[in-house]
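[step 3/7] fold_predict: job queued, chain A
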Amino acid sequence: MDWKLERMSTPKVRRDEEVIWGSIMISLGRDFRKSRKSNLQRINKTPDCGKTSYSKFKRSILKRRACQIPVASTPITTRCRCCQAQNRDATLCHGTTELNSSSPEDQYVTPEQLVLLPYLTDVSSSSDSTSRSDDAPTQNLTKKSIRKHLHQQKMAFVNYQAWLGSIEEHKGRVQKQKDPGMRICEEYKCTVRGCQNKKKVGVNSPDSNIQPEMKLHITGLQNDYYLNLLDWSSENLVAIGLKSVANIWNGESNTVTQAIHLNSASTYVSSVSWIGGGTCLAIGTSNGEVQLWDIETQKRLRNMLGHMSVVGALSWNQHILSSGSRLGHIHHHDVRVAQHQIGTQRHQQGICSLKWSPSEKLLASGSSDGLLNIWSYDPGSVKLKTPLQSIPHPTAVKAMNWCPWLSETLAVGGGMTDGQIRIWDTTTGKNINSTNTNSQICSILWLPDTRELATSHGAPGNQVTFWQYPTLTKKTEICGQKGRVLYLALSPDQKRLFSAAANETAVIWKYGG
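[step 4/7] structure written:
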């Protein structure tokens, strides 16, 4: 028999109602089996009278069960499902009263569980406990009370989140105030952690012409041997890369005049280089960009793309900027034109250093596999895919610099397992002289006034050593740094040196008479 019953309430009801509905279905099934034979005879005579009408079915439920709690209808869908919302209240009643005369106090619908937001957890638990209690009045669980309780819990949660946000913002401001990029050390009054406990930096030769002038704390200097993060311009400006910021230090006023921030905090400054004459600064980044900044106007002039990895080395030759990446590519950019890339050379391993000669006719490039290449001036020529000279070294060619008064002489410092200073004649490819320092050479610098050579070192001494040229005899040594001295830079008047160490300290030295 095709019975189609209408759903008269929501699927979620109380457990007692499910028990009552089960007993109703058992009693109805027993009655249907008893009346089946008589109904078959009526169907043969009048086909339509054998089907129990929907109104008779509802009246039979009301007559057989006089309940004090609401009864849910069958979950089977009916042809009258479209009228579900209109007739839902008519299924709840008392005794033998009609469907349309049921009392509204006896109607009850259990709300759905509320677990959408964190501040609704208490509401869902309280509503469940209310539905489980038999003595709780149904009037307390109205829509208005639920809405009010939800609003209170939501406002408490939102206020708590706002309070946490204000604390984090305050912490960020305090951190920025405590840890600027560069600051002058106040010696005994210095508040930097561990500053007073550090060993003092000094010169081991009393008759030396090198004396410390100022100590700086530089926060964010990366301890990476293959980066080039320090350069001193002809305008007496020092550029140093500290994480995602390039700080500009004025050599005259001894203050930070500008801080250039990259767009993303996850991108860090990997190399800096000043143009030969002027205030244009080139910045290489970890995501392969080469940015040009005008320090006077404090604006970025352009952003040159092309590299696919960290740009670890930069070098200027008038309006030509050469950049080297860790994939071994050397790109030459003409910064005057829109199509800036005019030439490309390549190493098998990453580029550690790039230097144009003082005569502006030769380019030296060093790679992490220990290969030193000497290239001709014209970077756009197709014939220059092979270097003029290719000189192998036992370790990475990082510390490298041209001699200012001998335009074709190049000094190269060896890595941790080498430690040799080698002087090369790039025309013939011959080694003029060499000496062993017994430590890693991080940077090498020529001093034109005294015709000396300065080298900065890593383990075990972390010292700065001055050598007489051409004999390469040790003259003076500066000790006391707790981290390897990664970078050296010479002022435009050649009277001061800037050294930066891996323990985030820098020293400005007075040099000369």
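[step 5/7] annotate
The chain has two domains: 1-112, 183-511.
The longest strand covers residues 210-218.
exit 0
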